């Protein structure tokens, strides 16, 4: 079967475009080696369309539970699956619908699912018909082992904050034995639409003591369209507590900021929190992903921390972006810098990252030391399934590809146009030295040709060891210059 498939590829590739041939080659690679241990878990982004404000809870029963906003803002739905990827096709079950009138009768936003002391809770924001932007925070609870049944959910009323005003986007978390709540709320005495607040919880349904403001819109990127700090999401890692949040209007200007505090600090003390002066995650014009934000965190089966967020695949919106139904849910793994801070990278679309394997050495194309820095050399190394060996092949629609590192968000770049010049990762500048053509080689193998130099990606001396820096060289028709893409 393998020989027959390869023969068919050789016959077909004469008549295919480079992009079509590359897709076929990847597909055949999977057929030849479907159980390859090289392929890390991949996500077919977006995993769910026309859903926004994702919340995911990884439970001890082996399931992931997900809820989100629906475009009609009139109901709350749940789904569950054994894997994050499985949530894409999991059956959706409506567990609650809005009231016909009075409180909770319109604009049901951003449900958040949590599990506490044997019961499930969903926190959400809703408004009253006639005053659609005067939200308050409410809760539902369910004692069933499997809450995705549509039955057993009980309304638990409003979560009372220290004052009555516009309140949305609840997140709860446990730290050092205490349960906290973080949310967005309007302070009538502060200019803008919403700030971020934290408080300790007294049980699952009541705030204990005073709420504390952690952040308000102060930078230009938080104040485009609306002055907004909202959609907090919390994670703890490397001895720090992080709160990601979203700023500005929910169009292409929507982006994410980050707060951090030492895990040993008093989280109710605003002075312990550090705020990033620049967005940590934002729209990507070149990848065609816009309005990134309203995120959540969870871990994959292998313990990798995943960043799950909503975005659109187009920039221009007619009318109020709040009523554009086409926000969708995306998943990407996080990377970490040398100081233990998260690196969100750039949003990526429907392309699946691949591992690039050299035919001669069977080693993987790897960013040296998993560095996030520009100028770092690219080498071959034993394949280890890490993001330093995962690459997005982004079709530039001009016959060339951008080869984007999943780990760093930097791109494969030839330093010079002459033979044997080094290859490194660099910040994308749309240079010809950063564009690569994929030309068919033997069977499903291909060569990567640099647009600037016309040279091919090469392992010098056909060496087979780890740590050999790749370069570019004249095409010699050998396996040292042949590569395969494993998804």
UniProtKB/TrEMBL annotation:
It comes from the Bacteria. Belongs to the glycosyl hydrolase 43 family. This is Alpha-N-arabinofuranosidase 2. Residues 1-39 form the signal peptide. Residues 351-416, 433-485 form the Ricin B lectin domain. PANTHER family: GLYCOSYL HYDROLASE, HYDROLASE, FAMILY 43, PUTATIVE (AFU_ORTHOLOGUE AFUA_3G01660)-RELATED. Its EC number is 3.2.1.55. One of its GO terms (molecular function) is alpha-L-arabinofuranosidase activity. The keyword Signal applies. The keyword Transferase does not apply. Pfam families: Glyco_hydro_43, RicinB_lectin_2. It is an enzyme of class 3 (hydrolase). The record marks 169 as: Important for catalytic activity, responsible for pKa modulation of the active site Glu and correct orientation of both the proton donor and substrate. SUPFAM superfamilies: Arabinanase/levansucrase/invertase, Ricin B-like lectins. GO terms for biological process: carbohydrate metabolic process. Keywords: Glycosidase, Hydrolase, Signal. InterPro entries: Glyco_hydro_43, Glyco_hydro_beta-prop_sf, Ricin_B-like_lectins, Ricin_B_lectin.
């Amino acid at each position: 079967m393998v020989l027959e498939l390869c023969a068919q590829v050789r016959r077909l590739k004469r008549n295919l475009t480079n992009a079509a041939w590359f897709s076929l080659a990847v597909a055949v690679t999977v057929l030849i080696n479907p159980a390859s241990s090289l392929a890390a878990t991949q996500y077919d982004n977006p995993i769910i369309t026309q859903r926004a404000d994702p919340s995911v809870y990884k439970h001890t029963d082996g399931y992931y539970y997900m809820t989100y906003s629906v475009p009609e803002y009139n109901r709350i739905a749940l789904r569950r699956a054994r894997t994050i990827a499985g949530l894409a096709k999991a059956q959706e079950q409506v567990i609650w619908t809005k009231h016909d009138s009075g409180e909770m009768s319109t604009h049901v936003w951003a449900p958040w699912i949590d599990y506490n002391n044997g019961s499930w809770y969903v926190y959400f924001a809703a408004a009253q018909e006639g005053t659609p932007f005067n939200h308050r925070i409410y809760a539902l609870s369910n004692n069933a082992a499997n809450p995705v049944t549509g039955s057993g959910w009980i309304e638990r009323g409003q979560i009372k904050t220290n004052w009555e005003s516009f309140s949305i986007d609840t997140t709860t978390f446990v730290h050092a034995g205490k349960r906290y709540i973080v949310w967005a709320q309007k302070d009538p005495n502060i200019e803008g639409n919403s700030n971020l607040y934290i408080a300790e919880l007294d049980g699952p349904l009541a705030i204990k003591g005073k709420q504390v403001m952690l952040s308000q819109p102060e930078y230009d990127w938080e104040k485009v369209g609306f002055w907004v700090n909202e959609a907090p999401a919390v994670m703890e890692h490397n001895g720090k507590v992080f709160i990601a949040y979203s700023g500005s209007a929910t169009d292409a200007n929507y982006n994410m900021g980050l707060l951090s505090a030492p895990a040993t600090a008093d989280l109710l003390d605003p002075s312990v929190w550090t705020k990033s002066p620049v967005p940590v995650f934002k729209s990507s014009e070149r990848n065609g992903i816009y309005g990134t934000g309203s995120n959540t965190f969870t871990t994959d089966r292998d313990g990798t921390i995943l960043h799950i967020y909503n975005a659109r695949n187009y920039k221009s919106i007619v009318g109020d972006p709040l009523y554009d139904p086409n926000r969708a849910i995306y998943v990407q793994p996080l990377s970490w810098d040398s100081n233990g801070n998260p690196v969100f990278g750039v949003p990526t679309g429907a392309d699946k990252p691949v591992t690039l394997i050299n035919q001669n050495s069977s080693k993987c194309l790897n960013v040296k030391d998993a560095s996030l820095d520009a100028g770092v050399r690219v080498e071959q190394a034993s394949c280890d399934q890490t993001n330093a060996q995962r690459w997005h092949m982004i079709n530039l629609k001009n016959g060339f590809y951008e080869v984007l590192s999943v780990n760093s968000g930097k791109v494969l770049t030839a330093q010079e146009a002459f033979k044997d010049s080094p290859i490194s990762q660099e910040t994308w500048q749309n240079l010809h030295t950063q564009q690569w053509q994929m030309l068919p080689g033997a069977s499903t193998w291909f060569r990567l040709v640099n647009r600037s130099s016309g040279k091919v990606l090469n392992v010098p001396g056909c060496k087979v060891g780890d740590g050999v820096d790749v370069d570019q060289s004249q095409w010699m028709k050998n396996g040292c210059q042949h590569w395969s893409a494993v998804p």
